[in-house]
Predict the structure.
Amino acid sequence: MRILVCVKRVPAPGARINIAADGQAIDTAFLGFTMSPHEECAVEEAVQLVEKHGGEATVLTLGPAEADEQLRYAASLGVANAVLLPITGPDWDPQRTAAAIAAAIAELEAADGVFDLILFGNESADSGGFQVGVRVAHALARPIVNGIKGIEVQGDVLVARREADVGVEVYEIPLPAVLGVKEGINLPRYPTLKGRLASKKVAVAQVVPDAEPGGQKMVTLMPAAEQVSATVILGTGPEAAAAVVDMLEEIGVLK
Amino acid sequence: MILVVVEHDRGTMSPASWEALAAARKLGETHALTIGEAADGLVEEIGAFGATTVHQVHDNLLVDYGPELWGEVVAQAVTALNPTMVLTTGTDRGNEVMAHAAAILDLPMVANVVEFGDGGLVRVRWGGSLLERCTLEAPTHLVTIAHHAFAADESPTSATVTQLSVQLDPTLGRTVVRDRVERAAGVTLATAPVVVSGGRGVGSADGFAPLQELATALAGVVGCSRAVTNLGWRNHTDQVGQTGTRIAPDIYIACGISGAIQHWVGAMASKKILAINTDPEANMVTKADYAVIGDLHQVVPAITAEVRRRRG
Ligand SMILES: Cc1cc2nc3c(=O)[nH]c(=O)nc-3n(C[C@H](O)[C@H](O)[C@H](O)COP(=O)(O)OP(=O)(O)OC[C@H]3O[C@@H](n4cnc5c(N)ncnc54)[C@H](O)[C@@H]3O)c2cc1C
Ligand SMILES: Nc1ncnc2c1ncn2[C@@H]1O[C@H](COP(=O)(O)O)[C@@H](O)[C@H]1O
């Protein structure tokens, strides 16, 4: 199987998110970078499918030159090829991002053949637009289902599972196909030392992205309303148990 | 006119759809779109939230949910009815269907809006930890609203019913739900009145046994942080947070969890939060309503014992 995974480099905030003075981005001065857990699982799924069915996985990102870090992380887990669509300046909007990724995929497929499966995260960690994968699938005229938490390849059909309020929905989707996956589909491995060394040698291909801006424009970022509550310290150590149970009775949890 | 795409599962309307109808009504004249015959019985329920017209779509292909078909129906409805805005739920299905319609129409789509203001739309990022004000340049605005951001208040009208005919390519049936495995009835993490969660501080998979005992004593369920799922101590179905489950219990008891923003965002709808942590400076402690400073391995069993003692 030829599998492509699309990931996005995002900051990894800890206890809180600080907005930069101009309101246009997160203040990343003291932050590391990562990708969405959904996308980490997409990478793991690609590696597992290749281990099971043979073939090769490729990881792709549209982002700053520093996104090389996320591409190599994927490579350290067993992804063979990496593609960077370099941009400078602020994030591209979802329509523009999708158009650029779809064009790059067309270029990659013209050179090396069709990807049987293209995996996206269900939503990006930062923007959470819930759409880039769907737009790419439409541009390539392929089926896509989001929210996938289980994939099984049966010949040229994918059996994909997704959780809904009522239970688990099962889809049977013909290949080539596109899926948006959710964390929980697997337990991502950690990179081995050998994997990390190998990832340093992976050649990152570059495709210069070219697409028109779409119709959604960010004006400014704003902090979410914070709940400020003065914490009531009920005690220290096991002696606090009585005070805790008093509280549980008071709020009606324990009748 | 604002067109609300009614999210339903085989004719059962989602509560998020009530919110979408109520939110739309406050913005202007509201019509509703129901996809598939199974939803024909929803006219009265839709009218209760103030929609004046229900456009019903019938087609043999629309027997169950399918993202490509539903997106295609919405796209054709936009072309036929020319609404100024299409609004639906910011749920798995709602966001998905709107994204399909947006892709077909090549229009922008704004997901998880919490406010319609003069300066533009306000939407959530980072699962709700951050807000973004944005503007839309498009003949029809495609918008989903964040769940619980708008009140589902009623304003009964008697809605007129019309049929909307669509032309659907049978190949799109490739993404219709083929089968479903119904969930066993019972409390889930999302609906439990009490959640006792453990983080890295629990120390091991076995370390969750006392948390399970406390949860059982309080008729609740066990949750966990992502650190715990990543370590393989618990299944991801127990994970609370941005990429896990959003919970809203009467009380959330967070044991050995630091309170990273991505965890907090999944827990913040809890009515009360009790943090149990050795670190008085931990974010979970400073943001909680109540806290116990101490080793969870001693504190949690002590609480369980006290609950049992008082219950006799
Ligand atoms: C895009 C993105 C999405 C994410 N989504 C999620 C998500 O859905 N859910 C989620 O949980 N995380 C999520 N995370 C991860 C998150 O950032 C944190 O890494 C994670 O929540 C930390 O888990 P933790 O609190 O258990 O571990 P830690 O941060 O390591 O905290 C452990 C805590 O235990 C306390 N402790 C240690 N020993 C004891 C003891 N004996 N008794 C009492 N207290 C003790 C420590 O003081 C500390 O506060 C996400 C991250 C990213 C980047
Ligand atoms: N800049 C990007 N580069 C590569 N993939 C992306 C990018 N932005 C979004 N994606 C992919 O599209 C998915 C959905 O993103 P979004 O529409 O922003 O929620 C993400 O989980 C990624 O898999």
